[in-house]
């Protein structure tokens, strides 16, 4: 899941009913992908994230419903929840996947699983002169930024003993690590 460069591939044949095939074709066209690339993305998301959600007790609901919950908490409570959850989940989820608990895999878990697959935020990562910078953007407001900052900071601290320099904004969080 985290390897880079050319990977061996396999060819598999699957059966789809006509409705499934048409839905895949429409979605691939909408995203500007080939159907094969879309199916590859679906499998990647399943293998990296979705298959673990049942055993982790994940719950899915709309951003409006989530905002109703979070709007009723003060920032200190949100920060406490983020920190407690971050300390528990990222390290545990890496071990559940049979992955080493190291810096690059924590980065993968945050950027790919939380960001890309779970849709918590968009992450732009930049590395320059020993500074690893992650800029997270979302549309959930300041309280979500508070949660993200505390969750991710606690994840890095617990898993790899790395302290982050952070800036929290209304719909953004900037995280920096000197490497």
Could you characterize the architecture of this molecule?
- With 179 residues, the protein is α+β, with helices and mostly antiparallel strands.
- The protein folds into 2 domains: 36 residues; 116 residues, H-NOX domain, CATH 3.90.1520.
- 55% of the residues lie in helices and 14% in strands.
- It has a 4-stranded antiparallel β-sheet with strand order 1-2-4-3, covered by helices on one side.
- The radius of gyration is 18 Å and the shape is globular.
- The mean pLDDT is 90.
Query: Care to count the β-strands?
Result: 4
The computed structural class is alpha+beta
Backbone shape: globular
CATH architectural type of the largest domain: Alpha-Beta Complex
Average pLDDT confidence is 90
Report strand order across the widest sheet: 1-2-4-3
Low-confidence stretches: none
Query: What about the largest sheet?
Result: 4 strands, antiparallel
Give the end-to-end Cα distance, rounded to a whole number of Å. 23 Å
- Portion of residues in helices? 40-55%
The count of domains is 2
Relative strand content: 5-15%
Write the CATH fold name of the largest domain: H-NOX domain
- The whole-angstrom Rg is 18 Å
- Element string (H = helix, E = strand): HHHHHEEHEE
Number of H/I helices: 6
**CATH top level of the largest domain?**
Alpha Beta
């Amino acid at each position: 899941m985290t390897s880079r460069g050319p990977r061996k591939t396999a060819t598999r044949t699957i059966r789809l009913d006509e409705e499934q095939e048409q839905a895949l074709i429409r979605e691939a066209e909408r995203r500007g992908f080939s159907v094969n690339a879309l199916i590859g993305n679906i499998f990647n998301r399943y293998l990296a994230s979705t298959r673990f959600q049942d055993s982790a007790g994940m719950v899915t609901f709309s951003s409006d419903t989530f905002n109703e919950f979070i709007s009723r908490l003060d920032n200190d409570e949100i920060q406490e929840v983020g920190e407690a959850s971050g300390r528990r989940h990222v390290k545990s989820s890496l071990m559940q996947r049979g992955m080493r608990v190291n810096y690059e895999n924590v980065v993968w878990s945050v950027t790919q699983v939380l960001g890309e697959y779970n849709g918590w935020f968009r992450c732009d990562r930049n590395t320059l002169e020993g500074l690893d910078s992650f800029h997270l953007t979302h549309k959930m407001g300041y309280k979500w930024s508070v949660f993200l900052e505390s969750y991710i900071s606690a994840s890095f601290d617990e898993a790899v003993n790395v302290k982050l320099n952070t800036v929290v904004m209304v719909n953004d969080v900037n995280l920096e690590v000197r490497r």
